[in-house]
What does this fold into?
Amino acid sequence: MQRAPPNLTKSHFRFSPISMQDPISILRTHGLQATPQRIAVATYVLRTQTHPPADEVWAQVRKSCPTISRGTVYNTLNLLVEKSLGGPVDKARFKEPPLRISGDADRYDHREGNDDHTQPGNLYRLLPDEEREHLHAAVAGAMRGVTKEIVERQLAHFEQADPAYAKGVRKALKRS
It folds into this structure.
């Protein structure tokens, strides 16, 4: 089992398979030349706990790569997004066959009869207090820079899942 990089906590909500990989391998796997600047940007982005704005990436990467320009950071971030960092890729072998039907067809309303809040609420209640705090902080960090209207809408969803979830995120938002 791979060990977590020292700058990350043990929280299950902060790791992803991509963040645990070597940034040079990731760049090469996605057809990108592994220049020192790209390695520095990829290392920071893949190991951070939030989705930082480009200027924050630039400020942090300059600490280890002082000659990097803001434009290089923006261009590298755009390339990483374009390459999806291992995101979904269409593969012909997984393509579904055409569906032959006769008669009327309509869209399926996935919301009808479904409850989108019970399962997340149950999961939240299973977490130990320390993990809940990590979750609150991670969500609050990800909401940095999001409009108040969107934050309130999301907090309403958290409230429906578990009032303590919404309360914890609100508290974390005030601290950040």
In short: The radius of gyration is 20 Å. The chain is about 55% helix and 0% strand. Confidence is low (pLDDT under 50) at residues 1-19.
